[in-house]
Amino acid sequence: MKDRHDRTLLRRTLGVGAALALMGSMLPAAWAAPQEEVTQQDAGGWSADVGGTGGADDVLVTVPGNHNKAMGCDADWAPGCAKASLKRDATGVYTATFTLPAGDYEYKVAEGGSWDTSFGQGGAPGGANISYSLAEEKDVTFYYNHATHRVWNTVTDQMVTLPGSLQKSLGCPDNWKPECLAPLMEPAGNGTYTYETSALPEGSYEAKVAIGGSWNENYGQDGVAGGANYQFATKANKLVTFTYDSATHRLDIAASDAPVAGSGEQRAYWVTSNTLAWPTSLLPQGVTRAQVIDGSASLAYELVTAPDGGAGLVDGALSGGVATPLTVAGDLPSEVTAAHPNLNGYIALRAPLDEAGAREALTGQVALAQKHNGVISAFTGVQIAPALDSLYAAKATQASYGVGWNDNGKPTFALWAPTAKDVTLLSWNTRTPRGADNDMPGDPVRTPATRTEDGRWSVDNAAGDINEGAQYLWEVRVYVPSTGAVETNRVTDPYSVGLTVNSTRSVAVNMDNPAIAPTVWRNTKSPVIADDAQRSIYELHVRDFSAADRSVPEDQRGTYMAFTQYESNGMRHLSELARAGMNTVHLLPTFDIATIPEKRSEQKTPAIPSGAGPASEEQQAAVASVADEDAYNWGYDPLHWMAPEGSYATAWHQNGGARIREFRYMVGGLHRVGMQVVLDQVYNHTPASGQDSHSVLDRVVPGYYQRLNASGGVETSTCCSNVATENVMSERLMIDSMIHWAKYYHVDGFRFDLMGHHPAAQMKRAKEALSALTLEKDGVDGSRLYIYGEGWNFGEVANNALFTQATQGQLDGTGIGAFNDRLRDAVHGGGPFDDDHRVQQGFGSGAFSDLNGLDARSDAERRADYLHRVDLVKLGLAGNLKDYTLVTYDGKTVTGAQLDYNGQGAGFASQPAENVNYVDAHDNETLFDLVTYKMPASAPMENRVRMSLISQASVTLSQSPSFWASGTEILRSKSLDRDSYNSGDHFNAIDWTMQDNGFGRGLPVKSKNGAAWNHMRPLLENADLKPTPEQIDTSSEIAMDFLRVRSSSRLFTLGSADLIRDKVSFPNSGDEAVDGTIMMLINDEAGAGTDVDPALDGALVVFNATDSPIKRRVEGLAGRVFTLHEAQRSGADAVVKDASFDGRTGVVNVPARTVAVFTQAAGARVTPGPIPSDGTWMRAADGRWWLRYPDGTYPVNERIEIGGETYAFDADGWMKTGWDQEDGQWRYYAPSGAMATGWTASGGSWYYLDPQSGVMAIGWVNDHGTWYYLHGNGVMATGWLKLSSSWYYLHGNGAMATGWLNLGGTWYYLTGSGEMATGWVKEGESWYFCHPSGRMATGRVVVNGTPYTFDASGRWVP
């Protein structure tokens, strides 16, 4: 779907302080450069209307795409690369030519060097990529029209110009110049090209069509090659439109009145009952704002009203409306500009209207006309949302909406529609009070609604003719600006709590009806979470959870009811997670979704080819062919905010109260296993606007609920039709929806999609409204509900352009959480929309353990970047607090707000619950897939699993709420899909049996991933990159051990910034740090009077993300006894059990790629012992060495580390040298005393000593991919070796031989496992025979009585 493409593109801006994206367009008079004074022109967005001027110099225009490297850029998809820029020529066209190699390419156009302002197909903001292909190297010319935002190239379209006598008037140096780009015709699709201008002076003109910028191919009248000139005449200020059909080569020329500035737009605003706002961009050329206000401009303004529409201009004069003169009042009232900062600089116009007159006018068409010397110079529509809030909001917010219940138990109905002319309720009584019927047949009962002064239309149903469970629609007769007429719209209720299947009708469901309150929901209380910082959140999609779970009854798969199958594989896994400490399930959208067909009979299933390989294109092609008609997408397309989605109900329970009952079953089931339930809510956009069938709000109150840009177009920065969240009744609907879900479904919180598109004050009011809910009155304690969301800063609201946003750092003191992209990117390396995920690595993807060699930066630059990422991880572990102080890798002491993240402060939280840590979510690649990308292909799966677990630990062991995407613990893969929104069950379903993690299900869907397919193929085809069921299970168990640690003590979730500042520190930071390691101390002895856990004095968490064990003295911990946490001591990770802490010295020892957690029991202390590095080497008279500590003691019967070397001391304290046996294991100590590791020569023989422990190896050893054999005495074997009944050959360097081997002129064959072959051997297409001695046969040989002939090279000759 196109909107999902847009949604994906916007993620390029997330967390990097995206600037305001300027949007808007108008019909260009010509492609001239913008003037210094922007008047009667659209400068492309808000800035055009803010100061009266908005002219701009040349902007940087680039064509970011996967052709950028071929253009000389450092990376593909680089909007800031000047080498991919287009230059503006004298006519205003942006163009450039590049020589490009053969290939398939995709691109967009970007302005300003970033993704903030970018356009795709058709000039759509953030639109679909534009594709083209080259069969060979070729020069490709790109053109960009800055006015329409369309970009095209000479591969997909022709260069079409109109040389003629009109060209000098349009900016060319002379006429009849086919190479001049004025006019350059723009491709409009289907081989049609257009050009429009109103800049021609009155006169007669001639022209032809030229192709390719020369006369070599040109067409005249009737499309004749080289034919007669086209002739036309026009008057001044007429719009001349040229249309060329490349199939017939004919040119059509039409002239019409040029549109008056503002026509077809809504550039003015109605802000109070008698105040309107006029934009300075519509002032005549040369007229300033000041001149208008002081009256010297001689401008007059009129309010044009037309109750039924039809007002407009005919031959420059008003037609079809009533004009009311307005008075220029100067500045807008301060309360207006405070509420609407985008209106700063607009001119206030006063209307002679009282509130009643304004209310009446607003039910029809309203427009403003500007007259200059009696001639209309501008005519534009009016945006009415501010006026509706001014006139109605105070009372409207006190009323109730949707279905209510009168004293007789009958439903009542109310709809806010202040601009409607009349409203009628259409109803159909059903057979059951639950309204669980399909659409009732027959005509509806029509009941006129009554209007009140708050803009509300209601039906009191006093006669009781409409029953509980009735189906209903609203019929709203209302003026619609987009059609210019009064329309009669039949719409469902925006406050629908029940719906029929496919949302065709609303249903009057009584939420208190006991028949829809299942026992498990009614009687199972939500588990208590004392502090939101304690939350461990599991993000889950209803359909992903059970669509492929064969342990769920087939009719319940992919439904709410699957959560009641407690013995299913999925529910048993959720239960295990809950027992380990996971306490919250975050459900992806479960409100009524616009884009999923609900009827099972209408849902299509992709035909996945059974034999398609792990990197085949066939699977995605099958998925894509039914993507918009199957049962799957993520669901971010809200149609009704208060009703559950019908496709997740079982087939016979999709109507009315039946689906409500099943939703409650799900909530009860999750509460039963110990999980709170958070709903993913999308209040920032609707799936459509205007008169679209998926538009509900805009068909009830046109122009109110959708956020409009300065020209009156619906903003789409979120992906779809943005909601004007700042408008009072938009907020009211949102908060009523939240209260409804909390009160009537007992959910425990809300996750906000694109929360930064909401005002911060609104989010605070929502939290206050929820907090008013009580257990006694409402059945829920609203003060315990948690709110968190995406606090990204982008789009038309960015940088607080319209209001103070609910973005990262602007929610201080609210307890509302925002996702932490800082820790995410630090752990991953790079960012979520890097063009090649393989290049940059992070703390959890091998930056310090498994370098992939693809990062071309210098070692110093790369190290500095990677260590800075470690600092970001530390800050995230400490709650990402603004005022937390830490020492950075380069020794600086900074606060969280001072630590840099892409040019802004990294720390944004004032309390730990205001930060949500995560390393993967439904968006973008899974954690497993990112690790697959970033670690070298040669890295064994064990290393990949361990790095994935380090990534998960960085979230789970942090002081903030911990967020896991479902399946991350079981190494879930979506086959490298970067955006699985519409990728169906095939790529999204989870296998809870842990037999298959999803990797290698084919190349992911081309529309979202095609540009990276060449990177993906070799990865998906590599069988070594798919984990075994055993590895998946082990990963799951180890990840749950981290949960057990987190939930074992409040030290891991302190819950307040004060406690974190007091108790959490990172010893061994700065110059003392070991690259790729983090030591986090949670010291419960710190902070007077704050003993958080009486059973513990502290906890030490050590992250070792390197490829070597770390043995390090921890500052200040000598004398404190820390032991490995019980969850890890008895847990699934065998490696971590080798971790240790020496209480006497404070030295911690943690294996490679491991996170170890140690705790100190209350009072557990020992007398601090000496520190080896403080000792002095002493030599006795006989030459033996010992180590003397400052207190006169010395080490006895122990191994110690000094300066990176390990030394051993005997019972008398003498340093050991030579071979030494301890507990049955041999080690070798060099004459210097240093313990040997790796290959070591002694007494003329070679030995292999474990690189970490120094223990002498025996038997087979694999060293860097080569096998060696060590005898029982440790000596490396060479020559022939017989083990059991098999022979092996070891070369002189000990390496095991494989393949053909020539010894003394005799050939032998050694299999891949090294065994000497006997009997028949097939290599390639040839057969050989080896005698029992292993010797290869040649000549004539009898085998089992049959003679065979072999040539001199041993090949059998048939």
Describe the structure concisely for a colleague.
The protein is of the alpha+beta class and 1358 residues long. It contains 24 helices and 79 strands.
Describe, in plain words, how this protein is organized in 3D.
The structure is a single chain. The protein is built from 24 helices and 79 strands. By secondary structure, the protein is of the alpha+beta class. A hairpin with a 5-residue loop joins strand 14 (209-211) and strand 15 (217-219). It is globular, with a radius of gyration of 37 Å. The two termini are 62 Å apart.
Total number of helical segments? 24
Biggest sheet descriptor: 8 strands, parallel, barrel
Q: From the alpha-carbon coordinates, what is the Rg to the nearest angstrom?
A: 37 Å
Widest beta sheet: strand line-up: 38-39-42-45-46-47-52-53
Low-confidence stretches: 1-56
Distance between the termini: 62 Å
What is the beta-strand fraction?
Answer: 25-35%
